[in-house]
C-alpha cells in the first residue's frame, strides 16, 4: 500500500510539473501571437485532423506496417473506432471540404472545370476562385468552424481565424500575426522539436535537390535532356533554391501548423480544423504505399500524437473531441497516355475534325497550392520588411519562382480563356468536355450531329468506364448498346468491379446534373485490382470512380457513436457536427436549410 501511495504521489507530481511546463510554454507563445484564453462556455470543442488522400484500405495497410504507431495505439489500446465511408463524386478535396464545412457541395463538378457563360476556367487552387466559390456555397449556411480556426484548408468554414487557408489567403497571412521574437521563443521552448525540424529540413532539401539534379539525366530525346541540363547550368541559384519550397511546406509549415493548433487548444478555441497534405502529394508521385508516402504518414502520425497530448493536458479548460479522417482515397493509376500512346487531348483532337481543342490538366493539386501559399507568405512579409530585408526577400521569392514548374492556373488575374471550339478539363480519372458552339449544355443527340466520330470513338474505347451526358433533361450513358438512361437495369449490369453499382450510378447522375459539368463527362476505366485509368501522369490518382479512391476513413473516440455506413456524401458529415456541437438555435435553423440544390 505504501508503494502504491508513493507511485501515485509521483504520478501526481509529474502531472503537475507537465501542466506547469505546458502552461508556461503555450502561454508565452500565445502572448507573442496576441491571443489569450477564450472564456469558457461549458460546451465541448472539437478538433478535426484531415490526412489528405489516405484511403481506408491503405490506412489499414499502414497500420499493419507500423507506419502510424500512435493511431495504432488509439485503435488497439483505447478502442477508437475506424469506419470506412463513401465520399461520393467527385472524389476530391473541394467537394468534401465544402460538404463538411457548409453542408453544400452542389455544382463542384471536379477540381477544375469550365464555365461556358463566362468563358472562365475554375481551378480549386486559385484563391480568387475559391473565395467566389465559398461565397456561393456558404450563402445561408452554417459553417461548422464559426468562432473557430482553419489551418491549411481550401475553405474556412466561417472560422474566426484562418491561416494558410486558400479561400482566405488574401485576407490573412501567418507572418502578419507573428510578433518579433516568436520564432526565437519557439526554438527556446521546444529545442528538441526544433532541432528535429532542422534535421528533417536538411534531409528534405538534400532529397529534393538530388531528385531534381537527377532529372537532368532522365531518359528522353537528346534535345529534351540538353534543355534540362542547360536550364540547371544557366540558373544555378534557382536550382539550389528551388528545393526550399518543398522543404518549407513539407517540414517547416507542418511544424508551424501543428503548433498553431496546439496553441488554439491551449486557448480553448471551440472548433479547429487542419489538413495535413503531405501524404496526398507523395502518393500521387510515388504510390500509396511507397517509402515516401509512408514516411509522410509517420510524420503526420507524430503531429497527431502531439496534438492529442495537448488536448488531454488542457481538458480542464475545454474538453475536445478529436476526429481523424481523410477526404478521399487514392487508386493506383494506369495513365491513359501510357496505355494508349496518346493523351486524352490528342484522342479528342483526332476525332473532332477541324475544331481547336484546349486541354488543361495539371500537377498534383497540393504541389502548386503549396507553392502559392509560400509565395503569398513571402509577399506579405516583404511588404512589411525594412528596405534591405525587402531586397533579400524579393530575391528569394523570385529565385523560388524561377525554380518551380510554371503553372498558369495559379495566376488568379490571368485570363485562362482560350479561343477554342472544344474545351477539355481533366482532374485525375475524371474529365469534362465542353463544346463552345452554344453557351447551354448540349444534349447527346446534338453532339452526335456535330461530332459523330467522337461519340463513336468514345463508345468503343476501352479506356473509358463511363461516357456520360444528357438527353431531354435526363442523365444518360453512351454505350456500345446505344444511349441508356442511368436508371436502366441494363446499365447497372455492365458495371463490374464496383462494390455497389446502383449507388455509384446515383452519384454519377448527380454529377452529370451539375450546371457546370461538361457536355460530356468521362470516367476512366476501373479494374478488379482497384487501379483506374487516369488522364494525368500520376502513380496514384483520384477524382472519379473505382478502387480505394471512393472510400476514405473516419476515426472517432469511444463514446462518439456515429454510424457512417450510410454516408454517401460529405454533406451528411456536416449534419453530424451540427447536431452534436451546434447550439439550439443553430440546430433549429438547420431544419429550415435546403441541403441540396434542385
Description:
The protein is α/β, with parallel strands linked by helices and 598 residues long. Helix content is 46%, strand content 15%. The chain is built from 22 helices and 19 strands. The strands form four sheets. It has a seven-stranded mixed sheet with strand order 2-19-8-1-7-5-6. Strand 13 and strand 14 form a beta hairpin.
Write the layout of secondary structure elements.
Blueprint: H1 2-33, E1 45-51, H2 56-64, H3 69-76, E2 81-84, H4 93-102, E3 112-115, E4 120-123, H5 127-138, E5 149-151, E6 161-163, H6 182-189, H7 191-214, H8 222-234, H9 236-241, H10 244-266, E7 271-276, H11 278-286, H12 291-313, E8 320-325, E9 331-335, H13 336-340, H14 344-350, E10 357-360, H15 365-384, H16 387-403, E11 422-427, E12 430-435, H17 444-450, H18 452-460, E13 464-471, E14 474-479, E15 482-485, H19 489-492, H20 501-512, E16 520-524, E17 532-534, E18 540-541, E19 553-556, H21 571-581, H22 584-590
Parallel strand pairs: 1-7, 1-8, 5-6, 5-7, 9-17, 10-11
Antiparallel strand pairs: 2-19, 3-4, 8-19, 9-18, 11-12, 12-16, 13-14, 13-16, 14-15
Summarize the structure.
This protein has 598 residues and is of the alpha/beta class. Helix content is 46%, strand content 15%. A hairpin with a 2-residue loop joins strand 11 and strand 12.
Identify the notable features of this structure and list them briefly.
alpha/beta, 7-stranded mixed beta sheet
Radius of gyration over C-alpha positions, nearest whole angstrom = 25 Å
Largest sheet: 7 strands, mixed
The side-by-side strand order for the widest beta sheet comes to 2-19-8-1-7-5-6
- Low-pLDDT residue spans: 177-184, 216-229, 231-235, 363-367, 402-406, 410-419, 590-595
Our measurement of the CA-to-CA distance between the termini, rounded to an integer number of angstroms, reads 69 Å
Number of strands: 19
| Rounded average pLDDT | 80
- Tell me the helix content: 40-55%
> Which secondary-structure class do the elements indicate?
alpha/beta
Share in β-strands: 15-25%
How many helices? The count is: 22
Label the overall shape: globular
Amino acid at each position: 500500500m505504501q508503494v502504491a501511495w508513493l507511485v501515485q504521489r509521483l504520478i501526481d507530481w509529474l502531472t503537475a510539473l507537465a501542466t506547469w511546463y505546458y502552461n508556461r510554454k503555450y502561454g508565452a507563445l500565445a502572448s507573442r501571437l496576441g491571443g489569450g484564453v477564450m472564456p469558457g462556455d461549458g460546451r465541448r470543442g472539437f478538433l478535426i485532423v484531415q490526412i489528405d488522400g489516405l484511403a481506408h484500405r491503405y490506412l489499414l495497410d499502414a497500420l499493419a506496417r507500423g507506419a502510424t504507431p500512435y493511431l495504432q495505439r488509439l485503435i488497439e489500446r483505447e478502442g477508437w473506432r475506424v469506419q470506412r465511408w463513401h465520399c461520393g463524386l467527385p472524389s476530391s478535396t473541394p467537394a468534401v471540404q465544402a460538404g463538411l464545412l457548409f453542408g453544400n457541395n452542389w455544382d463542384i463538378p471536379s477540381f477544375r472545370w469550365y464555365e461556358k457563360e463566362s468563358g472562365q476556367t475554375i481551378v480549386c487552387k486559385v484563391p480568387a476562385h475559391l473565395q467566389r466559390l465559398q461565397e456561393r456555397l456558404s450563402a445561408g449556411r452554417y459553417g461548422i468552424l464559426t468562432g473557430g480556426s482553419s489551418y491549411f484548408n481550401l475553405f474556412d468554414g466561417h472560422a474566426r481565424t484562418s491561416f494558410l487557408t486558400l479561400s482566405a489567403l488574401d485576407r490573412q497571412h501567418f507572418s502578419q500575426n507573428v510578433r518579433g521574437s516568436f520564432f526565437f521563443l519557439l526554438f527556446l521552448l521546444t529545442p528538441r522539436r526544433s532541432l528535429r525540424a532542422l534535421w528533417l529540413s536538411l534531409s528534405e532539401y538534400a532529397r529534393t535537390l538530388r531528385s531534381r539534379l537527377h532529372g537532368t539525366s532522365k531518359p528522353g530525346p537528346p534535345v529534351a535532356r540538353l534543355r534540362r541540363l542547360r536550364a540547371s547550368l544557366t540558373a544555378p541559384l534557382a536550382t539550389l533554391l528551388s528545393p526550399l519550397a518543398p522543404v518549407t511546406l513539407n517540414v517547416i509549415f507542418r511544424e508551424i501548423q501543428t503548433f498553431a493548433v496546439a496553441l488554439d487548444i491551449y486557448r480553448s478555441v471551440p472548433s479547429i480544423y487542419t489538413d495535413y497534405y503531405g501524404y496526398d502529394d507523395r502518393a500521387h508521385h510515388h504510390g500509396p504505399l511507397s517509402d515516401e508516402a509512408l514516411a509522410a504518414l509517420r510524420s503526420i502520425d507524430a503531429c497527431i500524437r502531439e496534438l492529442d497530448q495537448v488536448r488531454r493536458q488542457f481538458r480542464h479548460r475545454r474538453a475536445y473531441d478529436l476526429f481523424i479522417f481523410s477526404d478521399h482515397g487514392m487508386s493506383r493509376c494506369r495513365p491513359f497516355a501510357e496505355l494508349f500512346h496518346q493523351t486524352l487531348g490528342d484522342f479528342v483532337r483526332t476525332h473532332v475534325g477541324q475544331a481547336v481543342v484546349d486541354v488543361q490538366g495539371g500537377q498534383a493539386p497540393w504541389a502548386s497550392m503549396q507553392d502559392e501559399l509560400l509565395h503569398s507568405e513571402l509577399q506579405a512579409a516583404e511588404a512589411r520588411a525594412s528596405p534591405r530585408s525587402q531586397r533579400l526577400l524579393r530575391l528569394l521569392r523570385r529565385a523560388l519562382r524561377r525554380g518551380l514548374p510554371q503553372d498558369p492556373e495559379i495566376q488568379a488575374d490571368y485570363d485562362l480563356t482560350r479561343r477554342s471550339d472544344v474545351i477539355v478539363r481533366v482532374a485525375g480519372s475524371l474529365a469534362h468536355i465542353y463544346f463552345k458552339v452554344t453557351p447551354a449544355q448540349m444534349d447527346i443527340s446534338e453532339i452526335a450531329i456535330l461530332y459523330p466520330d467522337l461519340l463513336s470513338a468514345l463508345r468503343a474505347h476501352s479506356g473509358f468506364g463511363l461516357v456520360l451526358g444528357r438527353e431531354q433533361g435526363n442523365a444518360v450513358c453512351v454505350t456500345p448498346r446505344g444511349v441508356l438512361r442511368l436508371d436502366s437495369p441494363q446499365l447497372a449490369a455492365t458495371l463490374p468491379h464496383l462494390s455497389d453499382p446502383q449507388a455509384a450510378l446515383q452519384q454519377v447522375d448527380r454529377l452529370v446534373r451539375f450546371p457546370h459539368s461538361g457536355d460530356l463527362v468521362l470516367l476512366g476505366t476501373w479494374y478488379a485490382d482497384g487501379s483506374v485509368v487516369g488522364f494525368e501522369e500520376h502513380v496514384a490518382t483520384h477524382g472519379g470512380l473505382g478502387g480505394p479512391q471512393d472510400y476514405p476513413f473516419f476515426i472517432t473516440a469511444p463514446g462518439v457513436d456515429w454510424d457512417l455506413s450510410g454516408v454517401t456524401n460529405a454533406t451528411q458529415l456536416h449534419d453530424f457536427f451540427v447536431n452534436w456541437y451546434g447550439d439550439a438555435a443553430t440546430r433549429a435553423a438547420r431544419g429550415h436549410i435546403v441541403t441540396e440544390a434542385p
